[in-house]
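Weekly puzzle thread! Below is a chain. First person to post its structure in token form gets bragging rights.
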Amino acid sequence: MEEYTTLLRCLRIQAYKAYSRAVNVLNFLKRLMSIMGMNEQWVAAWIKQKVDSKCIHWKSLRDLILAHLNTKKRVDIFALSIYGLIIFSKALGHIDEAVSDLFDRLDKKVTPVPTILAETFRSLSAYRRAAIF
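Winning reply:
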């Protein structure tokens, strides 16, 4: 836990407030609007249903990162992309709604370390099972 906290630079985050998915959360559309600073029509046009959840394609976010005028929003969108593509990848090339929930909650000083650590173990375990068979 300490190593992940250091690697993720979560030292100022309150360690006793671990992330857990809230029951009453903004829907995916509203979270993306908040994170990206874009209007409802733009966000709604890019949301897709993939497998069992909603998501947005990485290419849409990449284009927005390159074109967004607000530097803080560009960094936020880039960070959301990294979380979605590398740490919590569910659908190849897409950012899942669960990732946006985690990312949205980081502003509330919750630590993502246990969640990321658990996801790492789950991913490595799945990879190991696939490599064995």
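Puzzle host: Confirmed. Bonus trivia for everyone else. Strands lie at 47-50, 53-57, 94-96.
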